[in-house]
Amino acid sequence: MASSAPTAAKPVALLPAPICRCGGGGLRSTLLALMPPAAAAASRFRVSASASDVPDFLSSDWLETRKKKPFGPRLNFNAEEAVEYQLEALKYNDQPRQDYGIEVMYRFAGFDPFERSTYFGRQFDLGQFERFRRIFHHSTYRVLLAHKERTILSSLWVEENLYKQRVWVRGSRPEEEAIFQFTMVQRVGGSWDGYWLTESLINDDGDALSGGLAY
Asked: 189: left (phi > 0), else alpha (psi -120 to 50), else beta?
């Protein structure tokens, strides 16, 4: 005959709670860590979209950064302003990053990257930015980089769409100075119609690069 005494209940082993190793982020990060991967990804994008349309794995200023255009030619710049902005970029060449000023010069350059250019007086293949950059670090042009002082010596409107300006520059090294001539051309037609671009930037010492240059 079966005993009527109540049977003692067996203890039930509880599973350990999952440990979230997701770092900071509070409750939302913990919940995302416990979700299946697909659901977590969907939740992450859904919550972000309702906040600022920027996924939370990107920086908060990502959208504004994307809107900013690299500094270069602008349709509202006249010839004098185009020269001034280029010289300012070279004066602060390493801001906000190394050789940023030379990057600005490259954007203003009006040569065809598929043809040899006389931008520096002599013919060079400047289709690659690195070659363009190296010439600016040559002793002929480095006076422009982080220069301390400059003065416009003369300017000339050769034609309605052709402008020249000569500038004296004092460099950052002792007794370093030079005179440079900008030749600016306003494009007519095409995608650059109306923009002032640099046709050439030449050191007044015309023979400075005559000995050749490894670039």
From this structure: left
